[in-house]
Amino acid sequence: MQVRKIGARDGFPLEVQVSGPDDAPALLLLQGQANSHEWWDDLRGDFESDFRTITFDYRGTGGSRGELGELSTSSFAADAADVLDHLGVERTAVYGTSMGGRITQMLALNHSERVSAIVLACTSPGGPHAVKRPREVGQALARLRGEEHTQYLFDLFYTPAWTVSAKYSKMLGDDTMTAVESSAHLRVSANHDAWDRLPEITAPTLIMHGDADRMNPVGNARILRDRIPGSQLLILPEGRHGFFEEFAEEVTPAVIRFLAESLQKF
Fold first, then answer.
1. CA 149/CA 113 separation, integer angstroms
2. Is residue 209 within 8 Å of 235, Cβ to Cβ?
């Protein structure tokens, strides 16, 4: 994997990671809230034989640190476009999970010429039309601290059948983030609202969700399917918020298949 630092449009330093063949179709992977590219560590290898696989650390995570300023899913989408510019990538497929799915929506809306196909996993349209998580889940996430918080979050991501310990998970947050950085990311997710504009998305779209997701209820996947023209929907039985990792043997081939079929149309 090649790691490089680039300057975004305002000079903010973004750390970018690239793997896979240089001449393969590009695939941008966008991780969840308050996480660096490490979210993808155990998954990106499955894409590298077919795609030039690109990740970057969001502002306030990993190797992308500095004065944050005003952040939004649109500004993170603009960062993604800056990354593509620096890499010389004209068009890319995008696989966004959780908050990364919100950013993917804005990338497909604000930079549609850069996007060839999108996959939206365990994400939401945001705003008042979205299905909210159960109140007790939000209260527990706000109240719990330390190991209790980690274990609660882990249980939202994985079923009891998942045998990997919480301490080895790459998806429970970047522990190098400050409280200010974490709060900024929370606001980015909370303020996202693409409801009105979703019908403008023209890229082929696959929407995936676990039907036992209490972090982000599965009803949001059905809303996205109804709002995005021609989109496809895949629901994973028993899947929680991390279904795309726990059930990767089923999910990842479905993603690759969808992207391959979509890219053949260009």
1. 41
2. yes
Q: How many other C-beta atoms can be found within 10 angstroms of the C-beta atom of residue 238? A: 12
The structural domains of the chain, with segments of one domain joined by +, span 2-263
- Homologous superfamily of domain range 2-263: Alpha/Beta hydrolase fold, catalytic domain (3.40.50.1820)
| Percent of the chain that is helix, strand, coil (3-state, to 5) | 40, 20, 40
- Give bridge partners of residue 126 from the DSSP assignment: 193
- β-strand pairing of 232-236 with 205-210: parallel
DSSP, residue by residue, 6-69: EE-TTS-EEEEEEES-TTSPEEEEE--TT--GGGGTTTGGGTTTTSEEEEEPPTTBTTB-S---
Query: pTM for the whole thing?
Result: 0.97
Q: What is the pLDDT of residues 152-162, one digit of tens each?
A: 999 999 999 99
Phi and psi dihedrals of 38, rounded to 5?
-60, -20
